[in-house]
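**Paired protein data**
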Amino acid sequence: MDLWLNIGLFALATVLIGIFGYRLVKAADEFADRTGMGEALTGAVLLGACTSLPGLMTSSMAAWDNLPQMAVSNAIGGIAAQTVWLAIADMAYKKANLEHAAASLSNLVQAALLIALLALPILAANGPGFMIGWVSPFTLLMPVIYIFGLKVAGRAEKKPMWVPEQTDQTVQDEPDPSNQTQRMRRLVTDLAISGMMVAIAGWLLGRSGIGLIREQGLSETTVGALFTSISSSLPELVTTVLAARRGAQTMAVSNIIGGNAFDTLFVAVSDCFYRKGSIYAEINDQSMFLLAITVFLSAVLTMGLLRREKSGVGNIGFESLTILIGYVAAMAFIVMAG
């Protein structure tokens, strides 16, 4: 597979993501209103999982092809990139700071869950090398903690013990009457088709990324952290900006935070696909640095959700500006180190 074919695959995948990413967020917004599930949980569970399919496909394929650094850096790099997408959506939403407008206890619980899940690969890489079969016990623990966290978020949404202050810039998560006319069968079909096409785009991105490593001699960590993680995260960029512009601010934020929490499971899935031992043992210094900066960016985002700054410099809050600067600096370091 030569360079131009890799570029062609990337371009095709990008077009597919743009088209079906729009359909996906539209159907998800309508699904949230029709079912009463709410934008926060719909964005975190349904939309977040669907838009994460390209990254899941890419990490799984890399692990199966014995490229552990690419698998891990794609998963963690995608989380870092998607956090930046929220900063971009913040700039695109002109009325107020997006984290202020999208006040949601469920999003705060999801943010705490994300940080907890990001800590597990660090523990696995530095803890005892005990194995269950060919996988680490942390691989089995991650989905358990993820499901428990979703239940906590669901209970917090239904019976909140903490309520954000309502201001004139807070956008309430209320059903849109225009979303009540679409038939449920049509909505489910739209979600299924859009999700499938996004997954196909993820497979194309994975093939192009592996081709860059195998034929162009690029570093696994660099390809995973920069090329495939950013390209496979394009559905989150498209859907988050579109959700914010459609007036679904809570879904825009929960799509990123919930999707990021789901994306931590890519490392666990990659460990299952990697047949040479524990994938955590293969985490190098660059990938560990990427994990650390991703924890930092996620913590900054959580502080932004708690502080709820009304406005910032040039329509961007302090957390979004910090995330942008931190991410660019981290990627520059990885490129220089690679």
About this structure: Residues 115 and 295 are 6 Å apart (CA to CA). Confidence is low (pLDDT under 50) at residues 172-181. The two ends are 23 Å apart (CA to CA). Residues 3-166+183-337 form a domain with the A middle domain of Talin 1 fold (CATH 1.20.1420.30).
